[in-house]
Amino acid sequence: MKFKSKASLIPYLLWVALFVIAPIGLILYYSMLDLNGDFTLANYQNFFTPAYLTMTLTSFWYAFLITFFTLVISYPTAYFLTKMKHKHLWLMLIIIPSWINLLLKTYAFIGIFGLYGPVNAIIEVFGFDPKQILFTDFSFVFVAVYIFIPFMIIPIFNALDKMNPSLIYASRDLGASAFTTFRRVIFPLTIEGVKSGIQVTFIPALSLFMITRLIAGNKVITLGTAIEQQFLVAQNWGMGSTIAVFLILIMFASMLFTRTKKKGGRA
Amino acid sequence: MRSNLSATAKVYLVAVFVILYAPIFYLIFYSFNSGGTMNSFEGFTLEHYKAVFEDNRLIAILINTVIVALLSALIATIIGTLGAVGIVSMRSQKMRSTVLSLNNILIVSPDVVIGASFLILFTMIGVKLGFASVLISHIAFSIPIVVLMVLPKILEMNTNLIDAALDLGASRRDVLTRVIIPYIKPGIFAGFFMALTYSLDDFAVTFFVTGNGFSTLSVEIYSMARAGISLTVNAISGLVFVVTVGVVAIYYVITNRAKKMEAYNR
């Protein structure tokens, strides 16, 4: 192309330097500082103590559970949606809840799962005693799955939508069962959508902190909760940055995992 | 393709829709409750809506939120669009993919990490925490999504159009404003819209970089929700829902019309 526009890149490259590269550098730098601002590796030593390692593992476990349930619910939803008549309108209806502020949706569950809320009312109808559902790890996973479902459905829907339907007919005509067709044709062809769905769920699930605070009480501590705690409550930016370094490493790993795809996005 | 779904599939879809919408309607339903709780509906009232509109602080926060969203989306769209045009004109394939990887970092970055690192950045370079820091952060995390929305539009553009314009004597500026931008307008529009929703939806980053004096709706709802149930929050949900559905409807109509126009022009 003859057209060149070096000048138009300047503000953009400035942005890259200041808000992409510099922040990562600063996090690395701060992770090696103690409370007095002196150089130390104590934060890293600290991170490899059982307390932090257990926290990291539980955070991973919850993120895995959340991603798993979100995927299991979203894939069939996306699949059935692509078979609807006005599929794009229906997809729009799936997306609308994702545009309602996250905090409002989370807040709704404080009422729904409350001791006198509708879920407990139903439990009582069946003759059981009302239980505290709020502030348990169940409620945490449930609300997180609820929040992530639309974000998982969108990339899977797009992948399914792009797929050529004659491939399915061919597979069926050649004698493959519905399950084999799914396992050998549909799923492999939509794996990119599944991957980006996992990416937009797993990393945020590791770093959620407002759902843990509002819904799980302090029962569940994720990497995100720990960072928020260190930065804003304990004012220990060094330790907070060290945890953030590990989150960034996980993030890069996930970027490699979804390398082949060209674009992504939260919504 | 078959458009008929099995009964199980229909039941499944209905269940998903019910689960997705139930919490939202639950909130809105109790926003009309005079009882003051989210458990038993005692009587119809609009007092919670009145409370929202009479609370000057809350109204100020709402205005702040909208201003930050519009301004940040606008600035991010300008920088991002110019950036996308620049990226496409890069000669070296390697440079281009490096820049694109850097672009994607902020999209996959966890909000908490973005918030924490921006907090360090602002403290270091001495930006006062408040309106400025929130606005700058929102611009910063919206730029990459604008680039991603605009880029495919530029790539699908026929480069002969640009060459023709240059051969016919257009200046580079003319090429940008009269050829490229009109062509990629749908991408720019989508980018702006995404930036807007990113900004309105953000909680974590804002929570980190907002000082004591400044608050957006998300941060305010968080502190209200931590204090317990307040039906004012329910009334806010009702208002947010109506506005969201309205905006989505407008967006749907506009993009549909654009698609029809495009089809017509071809």
Report on this structure.
The complex is a heterodimer of chains A (267) and B (266). Chain A is mostly helical. Chain A has a single domain, classed as MetI-like fold (Orthogonal Bundle). Chain A contains 13 helices and no strands. In chain A, helix 4 packs antiparallel against helix 7. The C terminus of chain A is likely disordered. Chain B has one domain: Orthogonal Bundle (MetI-like fold). By secondary structure, chain B is mostly helical. The two termini of chain B are 26 Å apart. In chain B, helix 3 runs antiparallel to helix 8. At the A-B interface, helix 1, helix 3, helix 4, helix 5 and helix 7 of A face helix 1, helix 3, helix 4, helix 5 and helix 6 of B.
Largest sheet of chain B: none
Shape of chain A: globular
Annotated CATH homologous superfamily of chain B: MetI-like
SSE order of chain A:
HHHHHHHHHHHHH
CATH architecture identity of chain A: Orthogonal Bundle
* CATH-assigned fold name of chain A: MetI-like fold
**How many distinct domains of chain B?**
1
* Oligomer designation: heterodimer
Structural class of chain B: mainly alpha
Mind summarizing the main beta sheet of chain A? none
What is the number of beta strands of chain A?
Answer: 0
- Estimate the mean pLDDT confidence of chain B: 89
Distance between the termini of chain B: 26 Å
Q: What's the CATH first level of chain B?
A: Mainly Alpha
What is the helix/strand order of chain B?
HHHHHHHHHHH
Rounded average pLDDT of chain A: 88
Total DSSP helices of chain B: 11
Q: Briefly note the structural class of the backbone of chain A.
A: mainly alpha
Task: Please name the fourth-level CATH homologous superfamily of chain A.
Answer: MetI-like
CATH classification, class level of chain A: Mainly Alpha
Give the uncertain stretches of chain B in residue-range form: none
Structural descriptors:
heterodimer; A: 267 residues; mainly alpha; MetI-like fold; 13 helices; 74% helix; 0% strand; disordered C terminus; B: 266 residues
